[in-house]
Every structure is written in structure tokens, then in C-alpha cells.
Specification:
This protein is an alpha/beta fold. It is about 30% helix and about 20% strand. The protein has a 4-stranded mixed beta sheet. It is globular, with a radius of gyration of 21 Å.
Length: about 160
Amino acid sequence: MLHNSALPLPHPYLYAYRSGECTVVELHGEIDLAATLALAPCLDAHTSRPEPLIVIDLTHVTFLDCAGLGLLCRARRRTIAEHGELRLVCPHPQALRLLRLARLTATFRPMRTIAEATQGWRAAPPITNPSQQPPTDGRTDRLINSGDRDGRRRSYGPGASG
């Protein structure tokens, strides 16, 4: 099913818009190698800036192949590199089967609608000054200690003795 609009899309395969605090990127048509080459620069522009949540909507996609999966993985990597989250809307059984065969369903956790993808999502409050916060292990909030359990300090890496 293709997007039926009186206005032409600015890009033949992509339409992006803001919805609340997130950016929704709709992909359209057949996402194969040729489309991927045309889409990559535009999708990179949306995923290379800090966005708290990007939703890629595959509702209007009529075909998706492994080149399209590669494009989705690239978008996810770029979004995570900018400390954002990428969610995927994928209601089509064929595309879901492809994600399952590629073992990417756990990575993308595809959802059926945009409302489901944005439900319960809230932007994390910004860290006021990260340089003043001591590093923690992320699980117990204990400070990271550079010494080992026995109290001796060790150095690791090239040129380290020990």
C-alpha cells in the first residue's frame, strides 16, 4: 500500500515529520538496492543529529530486501551513536519474516503502529553537567575504581608491564 496524498513527496522513497518529541521517517515503495542508494544520504541526515526518538515506519513499503535491512541497521547504529533510540513500525508479514530470518526481531522489536512505537516513551531529562558526575558502573551506581580487588593498580594496553 502506497501513501496516497495530493502533494508529491519531497523524496520518492522517504517522508519525514515531527510527532511530539520524536521524528517519524516513513519509507515508501520498494526498498531494494537502488532505493537504498538513493535513501542513504537522506536517512543519514535524519539519524546523524541528536534526536531522542526516531521511528521508522515501514507501513507504506511494498518490498524490502537485504539491502533495505542493511539500511535499517545503519540508521539504528547512527541513531544510537547520537544517544537516541530507534523504533521500527512494521505491520507486513513478509517484512517481519525477513527480520526474523535475519535474526533482527530482537534488535528492532518491530511494532504494528506509530502509536504503539511512541506509547510510554518519554525523553530522559538532560544531564546538567556530565563532567562533574563521577563515573559509575551503570548497574549499582557504585563508583568505578581503577584498582583491582586486592588494591593493586594495574595498567593494561600496549607497553603495559605486568
